[in-house]
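Encode chain A's predicted structure.
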Amino acid sequence: MNDLREISDKKIKDTQSNFIRFLMGKVDWDNRLVGISGARGAGKTTLILQHLKNNFGFSEEAIYLELDHIYFAENSLYDFAKQFEKEGGKMLYLDEVHKYKSWSHDLKLIYDNLPALKVIFTSSSALEIYKGSHDLSRRIILYQLPGLSLREFVLLKYNKELPLFSLTDIITNAREISLQLTTEFKPIKFYKEYIQKGYYPIFMENENMYHEKLLNILNVVLENDLPIIYNIDFQSVVNLKKLISIISRLVPYKPNIKTLAEQIGVTRETLLRYLFYLEKAQIVKWIGKDAQGINYLNKPEKLYLQNTNLIYALAQSLTNQGNVRETFLLNQLMVGNTVTYPDKGDFLVNEKFLFEVGGKSKAQKQIEGIQNAFIIKDDIEYASENIIPLWMFGMLY
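Encoded structure for chain A:
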């Protein structure tokens, strides 16, 4: 217990609170069981440590635990929680629950038998919390932490605070907002930085090594997280790496599942399962006609890498600007909106707004005569009529 307390105190001491993610104010921290899920490197650990530090400091009523610590190889989390609660503990902050084999069992026991104890935990985005071995769906409030928005990137790197706008704000007041914001910062400059090295907060550690760090994170997800969560073998990890390599050169595209499966050397069903794993791990993003989401049986209509930084890390010299534009827009829209694949245009948002994406010379031809249709253009600062600058969608969260 003393060793775990020392680790917790050191983590709290080293945690900075000068930059707070948007999710901090949206979480119901009073709930007895709160989960923060998201891609590795998005900042989940920092978020829960900031909450601990700002609300409890070094009080013995709260403790931060890394569930891959050797202590939990021989000791149960539930037994620790019982002892902690007896000694006056009120808050458990658990990091990476997917590293602990009996996570769903022990969380259920804590919730049912220790009502005075609250638990806040982080998990891999690939972990299917609601499909654990024990029913937690009625107990957990689960939140998704995405990577940084363009707005958050500007705040973190340049300490420049920009206003938050809803999708409705941007669509209905694009002209006024673009005129306002361009007096406060250089949107195209910051957008071009962000799409290469701005989605994950790790750029603050060493910007020159950012893509190398990102590839290392990708390897950890493939070699550690997915095998733990989905019980996949070494050959599947090799196949997943091969699949990512192929996808990175082709996206965005309408995948031919049969051909792609033959390239990897697996069956159609196995390939769809691989794509499902990569989607859950927030490595790829697929969109379909149905807003209800993905499953093992649905073929994606169009396939993307999850964010633009992955394009630059994986594709390097093969980077295509059309791909980057679409990926940026999809990535920013996915927080708080539903995006599906339309018959015309690139994206149908919330089953209402049609978006066609392009460069500054993009014409209206693809969406001509369609209501609630907009051209989203790269390399322009100001909105006009139904034309909206691409960078503006970086202000959504």
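The mean pLDDT is 94.
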